[in-house]
Amino acid sequence: MPNTRQVVTRIAPSPTGFMHIGTARTALFNWLYARGRGGKFLLRIEDTDRERSTPQATEAILRGMRWLGLDWDGDAVSQFERAGRHAEVAQALLERGAAYKCFATQDEIAAFREAARAEGRSTNFRSPWRDADPASHPDAPHVVRIKAPRDGETVIEDAVQGTVRWKNADLDDMILLRSDGTPTYMLAVVVDDVDMGVTHVIRGDDHLANAARQSLIYAGMGWELPVYAHIPLILGPDGKKLSKRHGATGVEEYQKMGYPAAGMRNYLARLGWSHGDDEFFTDAQAREWFDLDGINKAAARFDFKKLENLCGQHIAAAEDAALLTELEAFLDATGALPLTESQRDGMARGMYCLKERAKTFGELLDKAHFILASRPIEPEPKAAKALDLVSRGILSELTPHLQNASWSRDGLEQAVNEFAESKELKLGKIAQPLRAALAGRTATPSVFDMMLVIGREETLRRIEDAAGQTGE
């Protein structure tokens, strides 16, 4: 019979620092897979490392998830708070004979491994307590170990990597409970996944070997294995593991660099997964198309140019109101001053002419300088050269034509073109001093767009200011 279980995926980051871009990509894959199938996407904070786990790091993970738009179902689960449940399962494994108490000391383990190295044997510890009669157990500190099979193979059918085999002779009797009674990561992960109903474990292929070891716990408890999908890691452009030397590695850094979340989702989805030749796609398309068989086995290389290109397309395609909201979140994240009410109104009016060819919010804000600046507009040196005596005279003569113009795109173009023809001037001879007057720059949106956005009164005042400036 076909499996009709509801799909449940999860992301389980450790709160020991910022949220890595690789973790974000893994979260996205899990989110897409669940959301595209009407399933659940869960968040678990693996905070068992009490020395390194911090509330600040947990909050950074939550912020990163929210910025990326990866909503999760229910409350985030704390792994540390479930330690009692993990210990219960360890006890159940003992009762089933799938685990045992090991009283070996650290010195005894070290001596075993030293002898094994000297003899060229495996250094996997072979505990003398594995088959000991419980009646012979001393009243002493001990750990609980899984009873790994010694013969044959452990086989994992992985949705990305295919059939993966390990010789059981190479598997160790891993520790489930430490001598202080605290659970290990390997035990906690399995118990949490089972209790949370996780059907698909989609994670980095650096965890592939863990699947073999963790499968022993599933077998010992008689639990059904999840579908495993171990995805390749993200490399830098040079083919080496992505690190600080390649640029930003934390999710929040990308928000502060001005990349829109939609563009980031699109790029991360394409980083190791493909749907034909499609590069640019919406969230809805990604949810519909994403499947495990589209994930590549080979590691993906991070390419900032591709990221910027996709982000530019998403900025251009975004609804103006949504873009303005995300722009304000970008300003907040970077600690910049918030927009004033008048600046926000101007940005809302001008977004249509700002978002084309802007790859980041920083570039968009740069194009919006004519909106954000206030009179008197201080021209940059290059723009100031366009405001020589002749050009200022042209602006003075143009002013009455603009005063009487219909304040629409067609009306403004008609007024400026008729004035240019009457003076036998090319449009560029008028446009350049206009740019300098309206924005104080030489590279701006169309002068007609700028006039429409800032309005008749502000346009005329800026032109009047520029026309009255003292030339060199």
TrEMBL record:
Residues 6-308 form the Glutamyl/glutaminyl-tRNA synthetase class Ib catalytic domain. ATP binds at K244. A motif ('HIGH' region) lies at residues 13-23. One of its GO terms (biological process) is glutamyl-tRNA aminoacylation. It is found in: Cytoplasm. Keywords: Aminoacyl-tRNA synthetase, ATP-binding, Cytoplasm, Ligase, Nucleotide-binding, Protein biosynthesis. Transmembrane segments: none annotated. Pfam families: Anticodon_2 (PF19269), tRNA-synt_1c (PF00749). HAMAP family: Glu_tRNA_synth_type1. Monomer. This is Glutamate--tRNA ligase. It comes from Tropicimonas isoalkanivorans. The lineage of its organism: Bacteria, Pseudomonadati, Pseudomonadota, Alphaproteobacteria, Rhodobacterales.
